[in-house]
Amino acid sequence: MEDVPSNANEHCPGTQSEQAGKASSCAAIAEIGEKLSTVKHKILVLSGKGGVGKSTFSAHLAHALASDVTKEVALLDIDICGPSVPRIMGLEGEQVHQSGSGWSPVYVEDNLAVMSIGFLLGSPDDAVIWRGPKKNGMIKQFLRDVDWGELDYLIVDTPPGTSDEHLSIVQYLSATNEVSLQDVRKEIRFCQKVKLPIIGVVENMSGFVCPKCKNTSQIFPPTSGGAEKLCADLSLPLLGKVPLDPRIARSCDEGRSFLNDIPESPAAQAYQKIVQHIQDYCSNREAEQSTT
Ligand SMILES: Nc1ncnc2c1ncn2[C@@H]1O[C@H](COP(=O)(O)OP(=O)(O)OP(=O)(O)O)[C@@H](O)[C@H]1O
Ligand code: SF4
């Protein structure tokens, strides 16, 4: 994404008249490219269906990355029809402020910023049912008008499936994002089609580890061979498996990081291992980019 301002026209192929028609969209892409040129890594979190733990994972990825106080981290929630990030991050009722240089995100820590449509709603229960173009406009505004500052990581929590929001975010962030996936062949095909590098797959709610005897029980038997088979079939890394732990929901409902609450639990350790893979991936990319 760092190169968007200089090659914005590459994103606007077509005849002259088609290009004129796309001019405003290209201008937005260029503007967003300029705005986000100070973001080192943009990580999209995708899932095939709702309720698989994508927002929970995004929030814990943000917490874990921000535990290194030398890193600047931001979490952007573009699940416009069901934003759950404010609750999980303990920010319900917070509002976004306008500053001279745009909207100021809400800070959980000095180095952890959060932006969500939830901050713009009157009440957490307000339903937001917007059609594609309006959603697209809001995503554009989030990327262009939020004063993110210099960031090491921008994590984007997306809605389930592959919808208008996905097409918008991919278009606006251009082709150099990184993706962590939960679930799902359809999303993988989507990423491959739009040429997004895939960091790997996370299997969530993978077995239940009994807190007493530490036995693992398979509550939801894996379909189609589970994440291992999916990753083997598609030559993708399996970043890790997070077991089911009801204490995760409790920490999230109270707006706290489960990683801080019960760091020794198998689920917290699984999250940490996955985060380590993501950090390694990002460091390798940085090293590659500095040599090209
Ligand atoms: N490993 C886990 N063990 C137990 N509960 C979990 C786990 N991961 C997530 N949950 C719980 O599952 C529920 C759904 O999680 P979450 O809201 O993160 O899903 P989602 O995929 O983002 O859903 P949506 O896309 O509909 O917003 C939440 O109550 C969350 O606390
Ligand atoms: S494995 Fe089942 S029966 Fe044994 S201690 Fe754990 S929850 Fe109880």
Automatic annotation (TrEMBL):
One of its GO terms (molecular function) is metal ion binding. Heterotetramer of 2 NUBP1 and 2 NUBP2 chains. This is Cytosolic Fe-S cluster assembly factor NUBP1. ATP binds at G48, K49, G50, G51, V52, G53, K54, S55. Residues 1-19 have a biased composition (Polar residues). Binds 4 [4Fe-4S] clusters per heterotetramer. Contains two stable clusters in the N-termini of NUBP1 and two labile, bridging clusters between subunits of the NUBP1-NUBP2 heterotetramer. GO terms for biological process: iron-sulfur cluster assembly. One of its GO terms (cellular component) is nucleus. Residues 1-20 are annotated as: Disordered. Keywords: 4Fe-4S, ATP-binding, Cytoplasm, Iron, Iron-sulfur, Metal-binding, Nucleotide-binding. Belongs to the Mrp/NBP35 ATP-binding proteins family. NUBP1/NBP35 subfamily. It is found in: Cytoplasm; Nucleus. The keyword Cytoplasm applies. Component of the cytosolic iron-sulfur (Fe/S) protein assembly (CIA) machinery. Required for maturation of extramitochondrial Fe-S proteins. The NUBP1-NUBP2 heterotetramer forms a Fe-S scaffold complex, mediating the de novo assembly of an Fe-S cluster and its transfer to target apoproteins. Implicated in the regulation of centrosome duplication. Negatively regulates cilium formation and structure. [4Fe-4S] cluster binds at C210, C213. Its cofactor is [4Fe-4S] cluster.
